[in-house]
């Protein structure tokens, strides 16, 4: 049976992650209160951010920046600002 969590991002109950995908306290918070759907949304944004800003994940500052963006996106309802990216208009 799927694990259900109250997703802080979607503001509703949804299928939770199968295991903790991020280390530490933040990882525990994500595991207990972020759904698979919200995590998948973040993964897309993260990929765009890494590509757009040409982040080197070996660089500690790049990892800190990404973590701040992830926390703001998942828990504070802030969208990721990706230069040159215009979301497709809804029809």
UniProtKB/TrEMBL annotation:
Record carries keyword Repeat: no
Organism listed in the record: Aliidiomarina shirensis
Any GO CC annotation of this UniProt entry: cytosol
Pfam families (alphabetical): Iron_traffic
Protein name (Swiss-Prot/TrEMBL): Probable Fe(2+)-trafficking protein
Keyword Cytoplasm: no
Annotated keywords: Iron
Function (record text): Could be a mediator in iron transactions between iron acquisition and iron-requiring processes, such as synthesis and/or repair of Fe-S clusters in biosynthetic enzymes. Necessary to maintain high levels of aconitase under oxidative stress.
Biological processes annotated in GO: cellular response to oxidative stress
Taxonomic path: Bacteria, Pseudomonadati, Pseudomonadota, Gammaproteobacteria, Alteromonadales
GO molecular-function terms, A-Z: iron ion binding
Family named by the database record: Belongs to the Fe(2+)-trafficking protein family.
């Amino acid at each position: 049976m799927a694990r259900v969590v109250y997703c802080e991002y979607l503001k509703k109950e949804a299928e939770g992650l199968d295991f903790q995908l991020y280390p530490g306290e933040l990882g525990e918070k994500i595991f207990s209160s972020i759904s698979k759907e919200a995590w998948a949304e973040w993964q897309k944004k993260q990929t765009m951010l890494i590509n757009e800003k040409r982040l080197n994940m070996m660089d500690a500052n790049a990892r800190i920046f990404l973590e701040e963006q992830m926390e703001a996106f998942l828990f504070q309802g802030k969208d990721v600002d990706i230069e040159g990216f215009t979301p497709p208009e809804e029809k």
